[in-house]
Amino acid sequence: MGSERGETKTGGREASTGFIPGDYSLAVGMPETPAPKGWKWSKLTDLARLESGHTPSRKYPEYWDGGVCWVGIRDATANHGQTIYDTNQHASELGIKNSSARMLPMNTVCLSRTASVGYVIVMGKEMATSQDFVNWVCSDELDHQFLKYILLSENRSFLRFASGTTHQTIYFPEVKAFHICHPPLPDQKAIAHILGSLDDKIELNRRMNATLEGMAQALFKSWFVDFDPVIDNALAAGNPIPDELADRAEVRRQALANGTANREAAKPFPAAFQQTESMGWIPKGWEISKAENLVARHKVKQKFTKKNALDQGAVPIFDQGAGLLLGYSNEPGDQDSSKENPKFIFGDHTCITHLSTKPFSVGPNVIPLSAKKYAPYWTFYAIKDLQEFQEYRRHWMEFAIKQVLLPSLKLAEVFDGQIREFRAAMESNDEITKSLIKLRDTLLPKLISGELRLAEG
C-alpha cells in the first residue's frame, strides 16, 4: 500500500486516554518506560490502518454462499497464529455491498476481540471479517508478520485490555489506543523471519502427520469398509460379488489387471461374502457387534481446572476439541487404568478424537475409553466414525448400541501392525514439534521485546 497509512475506518468512540500495560511490546496508551536502544514506541494506528468487520444479514440467502471469504471466530480458533487462504463461510459480493463489512487486502492482521478474545490470524488473500475482529492493514513502516508476533506474544494481556460481565470484549477506544514497541523495518523482518522459520517447520510436521493420519484412515476404509482385499480374493477365486458391491468390484478388477492391487496383503482376508439383515453383505466369517463390546469407559480421578492447565508437570492434559493439548499435570488422570491398559481413546462430548499410548490427564469434557479385546488402533478407527450421536457422555446408550462390523482378531492385529509404523513416525514428528514450539515460545518474547538483540551486519 506504499507509504500511506490510510485512514482508520472503524468509527465509534475516540481512543482511550488511559494506560494499560502489556507484557512485552504492546500497551493501551503510551508507556513511560523507554524503548530498547534503536527501538521506539508508536501508536499502532500511525503504522497501520485499523479496520472493523461486519456480518451480512442472514435474512437474505443471496448475501451468502458466494465467492467472498468471510472470516469468523471458528476460522481464528482453528488457525491461531497462521495465514489462512480459505474460510468456513463465504459471503457474496452483494452481501458485502449491503453491509458494513469491507474487503481487506492480503497480509491484513486480524485479532479476535470478543467472545473468544486474543486469536490472531493473517489473511492470505483478500477477505472480509465479522464484527468480532479488529484488523490492521500495515503500512510500509510495519512488517505484518512482526505485528502478528507482537499480538501472539501478548496473549495474556488481552484480558487486561478487555471488559464485560457476560462476554469479555476489547472495545474500540482501547484498540485505537494500542501502542507497539518496534525496531526499524529491517530488524522487524529479521525477527519475523526467525520466528516464521520455526513456525514453518512446525506447520510442515503438522502436515506430515495429517498425511500419515489420512493414509491410516484410507487403509482402514479400504480394508474394513470397502472390503477391497475381500473383493480381490473373491475375483481371483471366481466367487460371486454381491450386486451392491458391483461398482467397487469393477474398480478392483482394474487394479488387479494393472498390477496395483496388493495381493500379498489380501491373503489373510476371506474370499466370499455373506448376507445379514442389519448390514447387508459383509465378508464371510465376520461378525456384527455393539460398540459397547469394544471399549471400556474410565473414570477420571484428576481434578482439572483451566487455571492449572498451563502448569508444567509430568503428563499432558487433553481437553475437548480434537484432543487439544492444554498443558501438563503432575498426576495421570487415571493411574490404575493406565497400568492396566495404556492404550486409550479420548472421546469428548460429541466425537472420538485422539489415541494415546502414554500416561495422560484429561479435562472435564473428555472420556477416556480403552480397547477391550481388539487391538487398540483397529478399535480406534472402528468407532471413530460412529459420530451421528451427540453427547455420549450423557447418552452413553445411544453410542453403546451402535453396530460395528468385526473382522477376525488376526486381521485387526495385521492392521495394527501397519498403523504402528505410521504412528511411530507421527510420534517422532510430535517430539520434534514440541522442541520447536518450546524454542519458539522461548525466543518469541525475548525477540519481540528487544531483550534478545540480533547481531548487526
Please describe what this structure looks like:
- α6 runs antiparallel to α13 (409-449).
- The model is unreliable at 303-312 and 321-342 (pLDDT under 50).
- This protein has 13 helices and 23 strands.
- Helix content is 35%, strand content 21%.
- A hairpin with a 4-residue loop joins β19 and β20.
- With 457 residues, the chain is α+β, with helices and mostly antiparallel strands.
- The chain is elongated and about 80 Å long.
In summary, what is this structure?
This protein has 13 helices and 23 strands. It is of the alpha+beta class.
Please work out how many helical segments DSSP would assign.
Answer: 13
Kindly provide the name of the CATH class of the domain at 20-183: Alpha Beta
User: How much beta, percentage-wise?
Assistant: 15-25%
N/C terminus separation: 28 Å
Kindly report the average pLDDT value: 85
Sketch the major β-sheet: 5 strands, mixed
Q: The CATH topology of the domain at 20-183 is what?
A: Adenine-n6-DNA-methyltransferase TaqI, Chain A, domain 2
Strand order of the largest sheet: 4-11-8-9-6
Query: Runs with pLDDT <50, length 5+?
Result: 303-312, 321-342
How does the overall form come out from the CA principal axes? elongated
Rounded radius of gyration (Å): 27 Å
Q: Into which percent range does the helicity of residues fall?
A: 25-40%
Structural class: alpha+beta
Q: What is the CATH superfamily of the domain at 20-183?
A: DNA methylase specificity domains
CATH architecture of the domain at 20-183: Alpha-Beta Complex
The beta-strand count equals: 23
